[in-house]
Specification:
Distance between the termini: 47 Å
Radius of gyration: 19 Å
Number of domains: 2
Largest sheet: 4 strands, antiparallel
Shape: globular
Strand order of the largest sheet: 1-2-4-3
Number of helices: 9
Number of strands: 7
Helix content: 40-55%
Strand content: 5-15%
Length: 266
């Protein structure tokens, strides 16, 4: 979608009238998204993962504070420009203001789903299908790293399956590069992806064995520094595999447990 001067006027008109932080609109017959600066996010949301990461020196899993507001909007605009310049599939930035952004829809009028949806649904059907969908995420992250960059939150919910088969990337309101070097940002991408998907792979032994092989192959192609950072994090996460499997500790901890069990081979 090509930006036009009218995008700025559209953003100025809709910003004060939109209550939601993110909402779809139709502009000249095409779907667009308006992201509006919202209230600052409370720090307590980062407490559990932050405490675990700090106690066990897991810098690659330490949450990057996204306090919302105009800073989050500025982060998103900058990162969209950076990744687009590398030829990566991110939403086109159509208009920008301190209080909000207007961005194109990655489906360009066609329905899209997140890779999380594809992985979780395919895991209910067959191990082979789940592995195929999961591999798409590995390939998408590897592409970003091969072009010298990293994502913000490389969770499967932020990887979008576009209608032409390409995986796109969304949600850049924070920047791990503000506190971590590039190697650790890239290791964080791998671990974030595993954290968001391991639960869907853990019940099928065949899928797990093949998934681990694919995981190690992806890391092997990503450079010694990234491999070492991910391996160090895996060692420090090992104890998490012994956490209870129930919901007592919350979804994030269940996901960390599943990721730890994946990394430790059981």
């Amino acid at each position: 979608m090509t930006a036009s001067p009218d995008h700025d006027a559209f953003l100025r008109d809709r910003l004060p009238r939109q209550d939601a932080s993110v909402a779809p609109h139709v502009f000249q017959g095409r779907r667009v998204w308006l992201k509006k600066a919202g209230p600052r996010n409370p720090r307590w949301r980062y407490a559990v993962l932050g405490a675990i990461a700090g106690a066990f020196r897991l810098d690659v899993l330490r949450p990057v504070m996204n306090l919302g507001g105009q800073a989050a909007i500025a982060h998103e605009a900058r990162r969209l420009r950076e990744l687009a310049a590398l030829g990566l599939r991110v939403p086109a930035l159509l208009a920008e203001a301190p209080q909000g952004l207007l961005i194109a829809d990655l489906g360009d009028g066609q329905p899209v789903d997140t890779l999380l949806g594809h992985v979780s649904q395919s895991a209910q059907r067959s191990a082979a299908e789940a592995l195929s969908q999961w591999q798409r995420g590995l390939d998408a992250i590897a592409l970003v790293h091969a072009r010298g960059s990293y994502l913000s939150q490389a969770f499967a919910r932020n990887l979008v399956a576009c209608p032409d088969g390409v995986i796109g990337y969304i949600d850049f309101e924070d920047d791990p590069g503000a506190t971590l070097d590039r190697v650790h940002c890239q290791a964080r991408d791998w671990l974030s992806y595993l954290h968001s998907t391991a639960l869907y792979l853990q019940h099928d032994a065949g899928a797990l064995a093949q998934a681990r092989a694919r995981w190690h192959a992806a890391l092997s192609a990503d450079g010694e520094g990234v491999r070492n950072a991910a391996a160090q994090a895996a060692q420090r996460m090992a104890w998490l595999r012994h956490l209870p499997a129930g919901d007592t500790w919350g979804t994030d901890v269940r996901r960390l447990r599943a990721a730890a069990r994946f990394l430790q081979g059981g």
